[in-house]
Amino acid sequence: MDISRQLSEIVGGGNYVDDPAALRVYESDYSYVPPGAALCAVKPGSSEEVAAVIRLCNEHRVPVTPCSSRVHFYGAAIPKEGGVVLDMSRMNRILEIDADNRRVRFEAGVTWGQLTQELALKGYRVIMPLTPPAERSVLTDFLEREEPVNQVYDYGEPLQAMEVVWPTGEIFRLGSASVNGYPDSPSRGDNPSGPGLDFYRFFQCAQGTMGVVTWTNLKMESIPRMDKVLFAPMDSLDAANDFLYRILPRRIGQEVLILNNVDLAAILTEEWPGDFERLRATLPPWTLILVLSGLKRRPEEKLAYEQNFLNEVIKNEFSEVRLGENLPGFSGLRQKALRLLRTPWPADRPHWRLCVKGGCQSLFFHTRPINASSLIFRVQEIANCYGLLPDNLGIYVQPIEHNRACRPEISFFYDPKDRAEIDAVRALYREAAEELLKEGAVFTRPYGDLAPIVYERAAAYAHQLRRIKKVFDPNHIMNPSTLCF
Q: Does domain 224-342 have CATH number 3.30.460.40?
């Protein structure tokens, strides 16, 4: 019996795909990473089926590339060495909503649209990155350590227990899920990290190279009873960061982020391209968005305290900051902004990053807020050398841990049908990354072209990663063209 027939028997004939036309959806994503052709794709419906598929592929040394949804931006789910695509989209059950422990347990194929809708019916939500596509896997975003717009300390480690399948096909549970009888054990939730060594960071940013996460627990929170969305137009990023240095260590606000006029215009635009050009011309160079929220307990008092603190700080120390419930000239922005921060990007609309020119390559890194402006300016200088005007770059800055650090994200927009533009952006991306590394930027997720640039400067580290992968993946079948972490 050949491996194709065995795979088909494991997942069922209707969940086995080998038709070349049907396999094209797995060949590429929204990045400029070259396509890759898989021999087949399988859609398991349970952890046991995932384990059986991986066990069989490991036995025959067939490459396996996991993917949780069809919305990917960095090339990490492209089958670069052929083999089998492990499509987890069929495993899309929300398994448990535990209000007492404020957690939700769900499978890898659950999407942002599905999870936010189901939790909202029960009065809950999970923290979100900026405008995740409704059809993208929630688990993928948290495994990839996407920064949420809500940086309250309690949500700093949103992932909790999870179940994984090792590259040998063994099923393993992490955290409190490792206790006997989970999820019905009376000790569930007592120790979220679980007994002994916890491997959960082992799978973050591993890009499917160390195994497959089948389900996870994620922290959730009550939907706020009261919200106040505030905007501050800023002429410079440094001015915005100075203000945040003063207020965020006092734990003021829930969602907080900074957008330049290009990114904010793209997010707000509904009619392309006219509205986009009008908005980017009228928006301030930078906009600070800050959301004050009150949950179940005395929300009025909480909002009053935070608003009074902000008023005092502005009056005594930052008189130039104009913090209000709307940007001048943009009435009604408050309601729209809150919806954009709390719900995923609609599935019936192209993602805003793809609307500017059709393609987008994002360069993101961690740094101290005091260094963000100079690093961004250096990237703008390099972009100008490649024919991309600095004023046409999208820039989003996410404060982290009450502004102890931040994550700037610079978007290079390009026409995916123009080979010259793709080549220019690719060369720009590499040169900018190398320059940022020299200046002390930290890349926590080195995808695609960035991976060799980062690992060349950490040869000993990369060597140890390969040794670790050899221990857990002795036949090197899991996403073999990618170096994890």
A: no
